[in-house]
Amino acid sequence: MTKIEEYSTVALKVVSPDRKPLNMTLLNVAYSPRFHTNLVLYFQMQKISILWNPNGDYLIYQGKHICQLQLHHENWIIKYNPIHTFFATQTSIKPLESAAPIELWH
After folding, report:
1. Which residues contact 54 (CB under 8 A, 6 or more apart)?
2. Which pLDDT score is estimated for 62?
3. Do residues 35 and 51 touch, judged by C-beta distance below 8 A?
4. Structural domain includes residue 91
5. Handedness of CA 71, 49, 66, 44 (dihedral sign)
6. Distance, CA of 6 to CA of 45 (rounded, Å)
7. Which pTM value belongs to this model?
8. Domain-embedded: residue 64
9. Beta partners for residue 52, in sequence order
10. How far from chain centre, in Å, is Cα 39?
């Protein structure tokens, strides 16, 4: 189970319908450090008159298209931040050597 540690206000840079950067502020955002996706409840958006047009993939406020949504991993996203993974590798100073003939390995 994921624990919510706090609620806060978050400022996002999103893409406007004309593909220009736009600032969007989300209120009462839950922070859970182990949950890698931020969810926006459509019910909460409707309460403040923000609508989603699923045919045009954008949000509407007061009759204006305010934010272009993006599709990533079969989810509609307001702002996509990919998770970067890093793998630590170490090479041996001495190459591996075998006394067995090459025919044994192939």
Report:
1. 76
2. 92
3. no
4. no
5. negative
6. 20
7. 0.62
8. yes
9. 59
10. 10
**Distances from the Cα of 61 to the Cα of 4, 45, 46, 67, 89, angstroms:** 29, 10, 10, 9, 49
How far apart are alpha carbons 82 and 103 in whole angstroms?
45
Overall average pLDDT of the 50-72 stretch: 87
Cβ count within 10 A of residue 67: 21
pLDDT score at 80: 79
Element (H, E) at 46: helix 42-47
Token pair of 94 as six digits: 């001495």
For residue 70, list its beta bridge partners: 77
Please state, for a pLDDT cut of 90, what percent of the chain lies above it: 6
The least confident of 21-25, 53-57, 81-85, 96-100 is 96-100
- Total domains in the chain come to 1
pLDDT of residue 49: 93
Within-domain flag for 101: no
